Amino acid sequence: MTSLVILISGRGSNMASLLEATAAGRLPARVAAVIANRADAAGLHTAAAEGVPTRVVDHRSFATRDEFDSALAEVVDGFSPDLVVLAGFMRILGSAFVSRYEGRLMNIHPSLLPAFPGLHTHRRALDEGVRIHGCTVHFVTAELDNGPVIVQAAVPVVDGDDEQSLAARVLAQEHRIYPLAVGWFAEGRLRVCGRRVLLDRAQAGQGALIAPLPQAVRAD
Ligand code: GRF
Predict the structure, then answer these.
(1) Helix or strand holding residue 70 (H, E)
(2) How far is the CA of 13 from the centre of ligand 1 (A)?
(3) Band of the pLDDT at 215, cuts 50, 70, 90?
(4) Measured from the CA of 16, which atom of ligand 1 is nearest?
(5) Which residue has a Cα nearest atom 7 of ligand 1?
(6) Beta strands 29-36 and 54-56: pairing type?
(7) Whose CB has fewer CB within 10 Å in the chain, the N or C terminal residue?
(8) Best mutation site among 9, 108, 145 for ligand 1, i.e. most ligand atoms within 8 A of its Cβ?
(9) Beta carbons of 34 and 8 less than 8 angstroms apart
(10) Which residue's alpha carbon is at the smallest distance from atom 1 of ligand 1?
């Protein structure tokens, strides 16, 4: 069975959604370990309560990014994962780490990439006045938030939204698409073809995951 190592930095709700999906038999994978770069990451408790081994590799204990990355890779490799899953992992990983896990390193980002890479995506989406926002699961490449897109889910931005309400609407979709994308990987259904990710030989995640939109922003 496909073995996962999940990297987190905080709350860990995406990690929890993956654990739930494995427990429910919706995701044919096993979470071998959850690793955080902070000892106070709340998700560590959730993982431990589910009997998943946890580790902390504190980035502050290392003088350089490279040293942190190598220490992290050593801990990750100790669990021999098939796939490394970034779930709210808030450290930028260097190119050596990224190329070590090329094609088996995934991230979830709270925007419809390539819009809004980086931080504060919900605030920026509101500031820009976009009417459609969402989240993206992608393979990780050395360039931040820029790897081949596996699946996206869109949500409407509605009148009266603030950062919290928009984040909550997006997060509900994150919890839906991350187990889906990891499941596709586990089933061997994904193939990277340049910038595109193919699912069973067609473009991954096509169309099916657009959440219902209010009439005002519908294209039809
Ligand atoms: C999520 O919105 C994720 O997309 C972003 O950070 C947040 C982490 O949330 N990278 P959680 O720790 O999974 O609850």
Answers:
(1) helix 65-77
(2) 7
(3) very low
(4) 13
(5) 88
(6) parallel
(7) C
(8) 108
(9) yes
(10) 88
